[in-house]
Amino acid sequence: MIFSKILNRWYSNNKRELPWRQTNNPYFIWLSEIILQQTQVSQGLPYYMSFIEEFPTVFDLAKAEESKVLKLWQGLGYYSRARNLHVTAKYIVKVLNGQFPNNYKDLLKLKGVGDYTASAIASICFNEVTAVVDGNVYRVLSRYFGIDTPINSSKGAKEFKQLAQEIIDQKDPATFNQGIMEFGATQCKPQNPDCESCPFQSSCVAFDRKMIHQLPVKNKLNKASKKHFNFLVILSKDQKTILEKRQGKGIWQNLYQFPLIESKKELVHKEIIVALKDHEFLKGNIFEVSLFNETAILHKLTHQHLFTKFWIISVDEIKREGISVNDIHNYPVPILISNFIDDFNF
């Protein structure tokens, strides 16, 4: 199809030189694709370089401690990606003898690997004709073909996947898939796309109908819920503090944080004092409390907005096992906690 020929020609002239494009090793491709989920290349590239330096093979990643993987991932968000990455590495080493599956169907069975990632690995590493569909591809296809089906609907997912599969280059699926993702990322951008130099301008439905900024269409998501977090930064005279490992399911699973009090509304000084009197870490202890940030820090997650305060609590001693403040940087923490640690200058 002429679409794929034009796209492949554009890609050969305009592609960015990126390290994972110099290889078809499935470990490196898998690693790059997991990192780049929900992440732009400019942000993900340093993480990719750090991971391949620290874990040059899937065997190195598999034998690492989870805390080390999470620490290296710190700041990227969506931490389930890192946990799944680690679980899958161990599975590939222990069950598959270090060999990645060589086809879309079997790649899809790996934890943390969905349709997009399986298609990327299968096409780039094994030349399987299976089309990728990510945010960039949705945008290119919806604009070029003038499709207003919501991309975050089950109907949209099926429709766009089928369309991408119809137009993919049958002889060179790897170049086509990388090309259409690159085209969406650098040419057909969400805002201010470069339509004037676009090789598809003459046949693009959205350009012809002046619908560039109306496509793609997304269904409105539920409004994010609000939560109030009060982190207790307990500091003793011998320079110890307390970090807790988050248990159970959740976005910050297995990361560390200061003891937390959740509240239905923003707490003021006298209210936090009342809440602390019977707190398990402070009961029977004399303490002083000060507020680090007068204005609550707003931390936006996909479905939650966290309004956060950090309360500095000074005590003579911590009546349980604490950690040295000098070691606090060794623990994997959410970016919200990491930013505070930097600002507080531990």
From TrEMBL:
Keywords: 4Fe-4S, DNA damage, DNA repair, Glycosidase, Hydrolase, Iron, Iron-sulfur, Metal-binding. SMART domains: ENDO3c (SM00478). The keyword Cell membrane does not apply. It holds the Pfam family HHH. Its cofactor is [4Fe-4S] cluster. SUPFAM superfamilies: DNA-glycosylase, Nudix. It catalyses: Hydrolyzes free adenine bases from 7,8-dihydro-8-oxoguanine:adenine mismatched double-stranded DNA, leaving an apurinic site. Binds 1 [4Fe-4S] cluster. Its EC number is 3.2.2.31. InterPro entries: A/G_AdeGlyc_MutY, DNA_glycosylase, HhH-GPD_domain, HhH_base_excis_C, HhH_motif, MIG/MutY, MutY_C, NUDIX_hydrolase-like_dom_sf. Residues 35-186 form the HhH-GPD domain. Adenine glycosylase active on G-A mispairs. MutY also corrects error-prone DNA synthesis past GO lesions which are due to the oxidatively damaged form of guanine: 7,8-dihydro-8-oxoguanine (8-oxo-dGTP). Belongs to the Nth/MutY family. NCBIfam families: mutY (TIGR01084). This is Adenine DNA glycosylase. The lineage of its organism: Bacteria, Pseudomonadati, Bacteroidota, Flavobacteriia, Flavobacteriales.
